[in-house]
Amino acid sequence: MHHIRLGQQLIRNELVEATGLSQPTVTRAVTALMQAGLVQERPDLTLSSGPGRPNIPLELAPSPWIHAGVAIGTKSSYIALFDTKGRTLRETILEKSAADLDPDTFIEHLMAGVNRLTTGIELPLVGIGVATSGKVTNAGVVTASNLGWDGVDIAGRLNYQFSVPATVASAIPAIAASELQAAPLPHPDQPTPVTLTFYADDSVGAAYSDDLGVQVLGPLETTGGSDLDTLGMSPEAALSTQGFLSRVSDQGIFAESLGELVKIAATNDKARKLLDDRATLLAHAAAAAAQQRKPATLVLAGSAFSEDQKGRSVFAAQLKKEYDAEIELRLIPTHRENTRAAARAVALDRLLNEPLSLVPKTS
């Protein structure tokens, strides 16, 4: 499914070569995907290769269903519908603050937003995915301090409302998963290059993808002392957007958002110094994470990188000092791209892991 989804047209022999699976196994898998309406043959593009069965190309079929994806933010949330290729069919921003509403009320607004997007679309909804800050249990129960949530069973609510499977994940591994979903699978004889995703926004953390999928790194390395007065605090507490702005306010500089602080820093050297301190400490945490996993690529995501260009340069310079191995740096440049990537990843997670499990049951 992954190979066909990312490719144009492939023949079965190419799938045998790409996956390392036997011809009968590939044939059975392709037949099952065709019966599910996910894959189709293109006899009009058949390639003649001499005697024997002709090579009929395969491609992704027109999407038989839709997937909903949500990325929950502190002040607003992103909702979108995706087809099986991952193309955005419809999207909207829910201008409701999860932090200012009680969880039940917010989830009601969220479900109403999904319902509005699906109105008029004839294809069935077969799954919904949610990416959020904080910690998420395997059952989809969320605890997130920036949202004021403690043990909120959002997966249960969504499953009950829409009668489809609900996938809930932390935003950081969701963004890492989006990188994995968009990349061609290596040949079975070759290891999957490790990609490390480092996120700094409403929360701070890192996740990586390898042969086993996506894994979340444990607590980031404790920060040292600086003008930010973060000694003894975890990076998650001190360097998230709200934690950072709180440290900055202790220094007598007040800003409602990171973007506002960056504007202040254009004419305020102290504010600029604090932003650079944060970038330096983030680079220290990222370098320690890179030392653990030795990634080929480091993906930077979150407002700490997208909204503070000077801080991004400070981060890159400090990272080079602390981690001298060759590594490709890649930036997800905007908040919208971050949220769309996370929402798409959780929306399509079941499709790419267990595509046949989503086939609607007939009565």
TrEMBL record:
Family: Belongs to the ROK (NagC/XylR) family.
Pfam families, per database record: ROK
PANTHER family in alphabetical order: BIFUNCTIONAL UDP-N-ACETYLGLUCOSAMINE 2-EPIMERASE_N-ACETYLMANNOSAMINE KINASE (PTHR18964:SF149), ROK (REPRESSOR, ORF, KINASE) FAMILY (PTHR18964)
Source superkingdom: Bacteria
Gene3D superfamilies: 3.30.420.40, Winged helix-like DNA-binding domain superfamily/Winged helix DNA-binding domain
Organism this protein belongs to: Corynebacterium callunae DSM 20147
Record-given protein name: Crp family regulatory protein
